[in-house]
Amino acid sequence: MCEARYQVEMTEASPPPWQFDAADAAARGLAVRPRRLLVLHNPVAGWRRIERFRETVAQLERHGCPVAVHATTGPGDAEAIAAGAEAADVLVVAGGDGTINEALNGLSRRPSGMLPLGVIPLGTANVLAEELGVPTDPADVARAIAHGRIVTAHLGQAHFDGASRNFTLMAGAGIDAQAVARVRTPVKRRFGKGAYVLAGLEAAAAYRYPTLRVQADGTWYDCAQVVVCKGHFYAGRYVLAPDVRPWLPELHVVLFERFGSVNAARYAFGMQFDRLAKMPDVRVVKATTVTIDGPTGDPIQGDGDLLGALPVKIDLLPEAARFVIGDPP
Ligand SMILES: Nc1ncnc2c1ncn2[C@@H]1O[C@H](COP(=O)(O)OP(=O)(O)OP(=O)(O)O)[C@@H](O)[C@H]1O
């Protein structure tokens, strides 16, 4: 295991391993059949952005891609469809990180292996889209999905008592999971990211800050809050673990070592104003296996939604995932 404090400057992590570049193949005279797309559209996540969604689908068809759209009907639907997805080259999620999380959990159960995943960002925070450098303009999104490069990525996997769930961006225990557990869907639909701020304030007032015991590749740490990161962005474009990227086969574990609501507020301000790197009580360690122990049944958040409850073991999903992206992020 290797330990790293924050870098003062943001460093460029390892570049992604490109698997396939349609533009490059075309330049070399190779025939490239248009990608067949199965689009999972979360109509609840995207209700404000329905025009953007329709325009993206129209643009995809202009690129010659056969597009099948399926509107999700409720929680769990994206996962079930992804698990049985056939006759498609790419599964596209038109929604937010919660729908993407469900789709990737379904794809990992697909008998013939994972399909590459593309994103039309319609959610509240769209952290994975930021992480992958997915554009927002419909024409650019469509071009990226139709012709963009495919990058291999490694998902995190959280093992609870009798169940396992994948995550793409992060899994956390402590105050952030407490906040996620308090987010109410109608408030999120109305106020977007403001719902997390409200839930965070509620959680900060009620939470008792018990000690979390974290084991990262055999070394134990005590902390008030821990976020196990697979991507460097958090809650939008805030940076928690500057050097991790989805394509790196490692977890970057961010440990917040001081307890109580005053320190929770310090960390929130530190994140807001990009000062975490300067805080001596915020530690980042790299690992491939992490366990988190604390009050049994306390929530674990993953990709901004509830993932499960303590205690948890976290490692990497053995099968690699693939993401369709546009230009290098
Ligand atoms: N038709 C539906 N009605 C209600 N909920 C749905 C429906 N389809 C999917 N969902 C659920 O909505 C949840 C939230 O959706 P999603 O994550 O896509 O948007 P978001 O929460 O606005 O975005 P983000 O996660 O990026 O902040 C998903 O976890 C999914 O289970």
UniProtKB/TrEMBL annotation:
Pfam family, one: YegS_C
A GO term from the CC aspect: plasma membrane
Keywords: ATP-binding, Kinase, Nucleotide-binding, Transferase
Entry's Gene Ontology molecular function annotations: ATP binding; kinase activity
DAGKc domain boundaries: 32-162
PANTHER family: LIPID KINASE YEGS, SPHINGOSINE KINASE
Protein name stated in the entry: DAGKc domain-containing protein
